[in-house]
Amino acid sequence: MKRADLPGKFLAMDFIPTVFNIWSQCRKQKLPLAIFIGLCLNLLVAPVVYATAAGTLERSSAWAIGILGGVTLAMVIYLFVVVFQPERF
Question: Does Methyltransferase appear among the keywords (predicted)?
Fold first, then answer.
């Protein structure tokens, strides 16, 4: 039986070009993909928030704070672009 080298196939360096490839292929429905990527990034942020709170927060609260931080960051970037490039809007 032949063994598959799965860790060799799914390296972290291959992840980013794969995401960009999927993003460029998906032309009509970008919102579901953006929500999925945001939730995946929240998988990295929520444990950090939960660990920083030293057990005073529940896990669901840590997830909510992570999502709120992501939405806030997205709004800041959007407003920055709108202020400095108003002719695009």
Answer: no
For residue range 19-30, list pLDDT tens digits in order.
Answer: 777 767 766 677
Opening angle at CA 70, ends 69 and 74, nearest 5: 115
CA-closest candidate to residue 42, choices 19, 21, 60, 15: 60
What's the pTM?
A: 0.55
Position 83 in a domain: yes
Q: Are 23 and 30 in contact (CB under 8 A)?
A: yes
Query: CB–CB of 74/81 below 8 Å?
Result: no
In a domain, 7, yes or no: no
User: Residue written as tokens 């030293």?
Assistant: 54
Report residue 34 as tokens. Answer: 């953006």
Distance CA 57, CA 38 (A): 21
The tally of domains found in the chain comes to 1
Is residue 25 in a domain?
A: no
